[in-house]
Specification:
The complex is a heterodimer of chains A (348) and B (628). With 348 residues, chain A is an alpha/beta fold. Chain A contains twelve helices and twelve strands. In chain A, the strands form two sheets. Chain A has an eight-stranded mixed beta sheet with strand order 2-1-3-4-6-5-11-7, with helices on both faces. Chain A has a three-stranded antiparallel beta sheet with strand order 8-9-10. In chain A, a hairpin with a 4-residue loop joins strand 9 and strand 10. In chain A, helix 1 packs across helix 6, helix 2 runs parallel beside helix 4 and helix 3 packs across helix 4. Chain A starts with 26 loop residues before the first helix and ends in an 8-residue tail after the last strand. The relative contact order of chain A is 0.11. Chain B is built from 20 helices and 20 strands. In chain B, strands 9-8-10-11-13-12-18 form a seven-stranded mixed beta sheet, sandwiched between helices. A six-stranded mixed beta sheet of chain B has the order 2-3-1-4-5-6, sandwiched between helices. In chain B, strands 17-16-19-20 form a four-stranded parallel beta sheet, sandwiched between helices. The chains are: A alpha/beta (348), B alpha/beta (628). Chains A and B meet through strand 2, helix 2, helix 4, helix 11 and helix 12 of A and helix 1, strand 7, helix 9, helix 11 and helix 12 of B. Strand 2 of chain A pairs parallel with strand 15 of chain B, so a sheet runs across the interface.
Chain lengths: 348, 628
């Protein structure tokens, strides 16, 4: 993969002339701006950037980015993106999907793009609802979600996108919130990660599932409900103005965490763990923290790169081709052959 | 009816030089009959005969031993004249067990030769084959010649010096049988010996045992000739055009054709596949051709396979995907996206018996409707059908050419028969192929304003723009797009115009005029009956029409390669005949297309048994059509 030279751009350079057609107040607007703000900081080149999406509200995203864009079919964006990366590993690919597109109809492809570790950023906009089809419950909807297709409340349990990603073998798992100022940092870390980087973005569908994440996403009291993780830093949260800073402490005998108060900033004395983004077991625990008892783990939860799929494919292809005869004429004649001489009328 | 040949097995010609012989090897699916057939095919090709083969095996990998449904057979027709089918009825049946005898006996010509392994005709195996009495002993085989002896024991004897257990020793039974067949048809053993040595390079004792079995079978022929019905038969080489030849199966030919097509387009090839019978072998062949710029991708499912191929085309490679009926059904939505985004793509469909899982290992032509009509919306794509293992090479190149020149997905139809069957192939010289090098758009086609990704050329094709090209950023997708700009546009007049443009683009693809395959052509074309075919029915139709013409019947054979769009002269040509008969291995699908597109009174003649047409049944159908 060739080193890409950094290109100087501003947010405006990433905006298209297309009218944005999301509902006014939709969380997607905030994510769009966050991405358009992140790309200039990365020195990304619009001509070398490709947004690929499936179907759903989130998947309209490529139309609003002044880059190459491919709005594909429902659930299959990871497969298209895999083909794109295998054909041109130098392209900077961003995949945009949602909870329905990525975890319902496209769950299989999402699993395999993560397992294979194709180098791209995968943004899953999770709003726990089907928006574009007018409000049916989705695979991340909580139990008892009332929707047009579940008028008495849904009875099936929801999937946890980050746990799914880890289970599928993802080497980068991050979480953000549409309106959070930290979202660009998570996206930049995802971009820096070589391999499939999975980012779940809690996105507010103001029409069909308004404020469903308020318990941790609402500005009021957010500090107590959001644990922003940073590699090498203690896992602290809370607001010193309203009470003691809190932290996560490991309880080995229960193989669990507990929330502890930190006195005078001495988190070590309180036994607070330091976040290690390369620790896969820790990542599993963090994405499964029961919300309520614990805050929502956000930021870069896991980041431990492995060689990418496309680099392995290229390397294998190069090895297999080394010193090989590439004459088409000889390929066609390969195998046991025989020569007929003379003429058809008079065979030798 | 042309049945006189059936009473006169090729083995009994006066001079011992028949012009064609049909041999069927049949045994348990674990007996290695496909391997035996394949090697016999090779030796036949090396002897200079024309040939056609028909492998017929069960869907189960190892069906319970000795059962009727576990029988695997390989039929080969070879001759000193042109061979166009694997033969209606065998002259020789090699039956490795009672089940193989029972399931294949009906096909054997009266007076034909049965070679049976008595070692396998045990009470247990007879029960499995539902024989109350041993047919080798009750006189029920009287109308055939029978050569029954203990091949199993002879094989064990032949390999006893190699220290193999009985089970391993018996694995060489197929080579013993092959040795006998090689003796019978006066063939050189050396190429097979070379092949065995190469195949078992890491296990020389296995190679030696197999070679010993092969030699023992051959030697047995010498002795048996003195006393039994076994005669040495010599099939002379076929007069053939000078040149280099090899045998080729359809799966090999399609792989080579795709490689050639990608090279002619000047593009690397990306092949997305998912395992499915009988299409998997294309994936297997291409996976070994990485040095030719081929990337193969075994996707998580059929849908991902085509989507990744479209993604690769989008990024500037030649995307190819392949499957069989059920997998093609899964790919339908993505094909629609390739139509909408006007992306080059080749889809190979190795048809098999359907619907649903149907007959995975048997052949049928029942995906024609699916190929032509099987997508949501008005989504026309060109459809090409290959008529033989060798023809599929040219068809694959043609599919690549149309895909890149017209920016469209193209479906190439083959079938289980073509995929697995082998025939001699005159190796073409790549220098003679016409290149169709792709030119990507690299400069803005709408200077000073935004690029127009849907601005069309004279053929109606849009430009191919690779992501990564500076200044040409644009968005495409499955939503209806505005003429020229490609921006989302749902307006009524725009959808009408885009639908018309997509249709016109495909309708106007220049397809070579349809000629008469066998019969008077050009200004002379016309007559009482045209037998119209497509795909793998080529061989039997050609032979049947040829036989009928030799008997003075006014019948011609017209075989279509281009199913959609049809050649422009098709209607005019077919109207020159009083009657049009369309034999198909489906319930009449091409007949429907012909009627609809050309308003000709095409009559169906159909068969859906999972088996190719027999020449005799087609001759009967021709005679009936002429008599009506």
């Amino acid at each position: 993969m060739t080193e890409v030279t950094k290109v100087e751009t501003t947010l405006k350079d990433w905006e298209t002339d297309q009218e944005v057609r999301w509902c006014p107040g939709c969380g997607d607007y905030a994510i769009l701006k966050a991405v358009q703000r992140t790309l200039p900081q990365l020195g990304a080149d619009p001509a070398n950037t490709c947004f690929i999406s499936g179907i759903g509200c989130s998947s309209r995203f490529p139309y609003y980015m002044e880059t190459y864009g491919f709005h594909t079919i429902h659930g299959r964006a990871p497969a298209f993106a895999t083909g794109v990366k295998l054909a041109n590993p130098d392209l900077d690919v961003w995949l945009v999907t949602g909870d329905g597109d990525g975890l319902s109809i496209g769950g299989n492809h999402l699993m395999h793009v993560l397992r294979r570790n194709v180098n791209m950023q995968i943004m899953l906009f999770n709003n726990e609802i089907y928006g574009l089809t007018k409000g049916q419950y989705s695979p991340t909807s909580r139990e008892n979600t009332r929707s047009p297709s579940t008028p008495l409340g849904s009875v099936d349990r929801p999937a946890n996108p980050c746990a799914f990603a880890l289970g599928a073998g993802a080497r980068f798992v991050g979480r953000g919130i549409d309106v959070s100022k930290n979202l660009p940092d998570v996206l930049m870390a995802a971009h820096a990660h070589q391999g499939a980087a999975f980012v779940e973005i809690f996105q507010n569908c103001i029409v069909y599932n308004k404020d469903v994440f308020d318990a941790f996403a609402a500005p009021k009291g957010a500090e107590l409900q959001q644990l922003w993780l940073q590699h090498g830093e203690p896992m602290l949260f809370g607001n010193p103005k309203t009470g003691p800073i809190k932290g996560l402490k490991l309880v080995p005998e229960k193989f669990s965490f507990e929330v502890v108060d930190v006195e005078d900033g001495d988190w070590e004395a309180a036994g607070v763990c330091v976040h290690d983004a390369t620790n896969r077991m820790l990542a599993h625990m963090l994405v499964e923290l029961p919300f309520g008892e614990f805050p929502m783990a956000l930021g870069v939860i896991y980041d431990d790169p492995r060689p990418t799929y496309e680099s392995a494919v290229m390397a294998e292809k190069a090895r297999a081709s080394e010193g090989k005869d590439t004459s088409l004429a000889r390929l066609l004649a390969k195998g046991q052959s025989w020569t007929v001489s003379g003429t058809a009328q008079d065979p030798a | 009816m042309a049945t006189q040949a059936a009473d006169n097995p090729a083995l009994k010609t006066q001079d011992g030089h028949p012009d064609a012989v049909v041999v069927r090897f049949a045994g348990d699916s674990g007996d290695g009959m496909q391997l035996t057939g394949g090697q016999f095919t090779l030796s036949t090709a090396l002897a200079g005969n024309d040939l056609a083969t028909f492998p017929d095996f069960p869907a189960e990998i190892r069906a319970p031993q000795g059962t009727l449904f576990g029988v695997s057979a390989f039929q080969i027709n070879f001759g000193s004249r042109e061979i166009s089918t694997a033969g209606d009825a065998p002259d020789v049946l090699v039956a490795m067990n009672p089940a193989a005898l029972k399931t294949n006996l009906d096909a054997l010509k009266p007076g034909g030769l049965i070679i049976a392994d008595t070692g396998e005709f045990t009470r247990r195996n007879l029960d499995k084959a539902k024989y109350d009495v041993n047919p080798l002993e009750d006189g029920s085989l009287a109308k055939w010649d029978l050569l029954a002896f203990d091949i199993s024991a002879l094989t064990i004897e032949a390999v006893k010096d190699f220290g193999l257990g009985n089970k391993d020793a018996l694995r060489s039974k197929n080579m013993w049988t092959l040795g006998l067949a090689l003796w019978m048809f006066d063939r050189d053993r050396q190429p097979i010996i070379d092949w065995l040595k190469a195949k078992f390079r890491s296990k020389p004792e296995i190679a030696d045992a197999n070679i010993a079995a092969l030699n023992a079978g051959h030697a047995y022929g010498e002795t048996a000739e003195l006393s039994g019905p076994l005669k040495k038969v010599h099939v002379d080489p076929v007069p053939a055009e000078p040149g280099l030849y090899r045998t080729i199966t359809g799966a090999e030919a399609v792989s080579l054709g795709l490689v050639a097509g990608a090279q002619l387009a000047g593009l690397p090839m990306f092949f997305g596949g998912y395992p499915i019978t009988p299409a998997s072998s294309i994936l297997h062949h291409l996976a070994r051709l990485k040095e030719f710029g081929v990337t193969t991708f075994q996707a998580e499912d059929e849908i991902a396979a085509i989507c990744a191929a479209i993604g690769a085309s989008y990024a500037g490679q030649l995307g190819v995907t392949s499957s069989s009926g059920p997998g093609i059904a899964l790919k339908g939505e993505a094909m629609g996206l390739a139509v909408m985004t006007e992306m080059p793509l080749v889809i190979v469909n190795s048809q098999r018996g359907g619907p649903s899982t149907g007959l995975p290992t048997k052949t049928e032509q029942s995906d024609l409707y699916q190929a032509v009509y099987g997508r949501n919306g008005d989504a026309p794509i060109p459809v090409i059908a290959a008529s033989s293992p060798a023809d599929v090479f040219e068809c694959a190149i043609e599919a690549c050419r149309i895909a890149v020149e017209h920016m469209t997905p193209v479906m190439l139809l083959t079938d289980g028969y073509i995929a697995n069957a082998a025939e001699p192939w005159k190796v073409p010289d790549p220098e003679t192929f016409e290149p169709f090098k792709v030119e990507f758009l690299t400069e803005n086609n709408n200077p000073d304003v935004k690029v127009l990704p849907y601005k069309r050329d004279a053929k109606g094709a849009r430009p191919w723009i690779k992501p990564g090209t500076p200044g040409l950023m644009h968005r495409i997708g499955g939503i209806e797009k505005k003429v020229d700009t490609g921006n989302i546009d749902y307006s009524p007049e725009n959808h009408q115009e885009m639908t018309d443009l997509r249709k016109a683009k495909i309708d106007n693809i220049a397809v070579k005029d349809q000629g008469v395959t066998l019969g008077p052509d050009g200004d002379e074309a016309g007559g009482k009956l045209a037998v119209v075919g497509w795909g793998s029915t080529f061989g039997p139709i050609r032979r049947a029409v040829d036989n009928c013409r030799k008997r003075g019947l006014d019948v011609s054979h017209i075989h279509f390669r281009h199913i959609w769009p049809l050649p422009a002269n098709s209607g005019e040509l077919l109207r020159k005949y009083d009657k049009v008969l369309v034999p198909e291995m489906n319930t009449g699908q091409f007949k429907t297309v012909l009627r609809d597109q050309l308003l000709v009174d095409a009559k169906p003649y159909t068969k859906t048994s999972g088996q190719p047409f027999k020449i005799a049944e087609l001759e009967a159908a021709i005679e009936l059509a002429l008599a009506e």
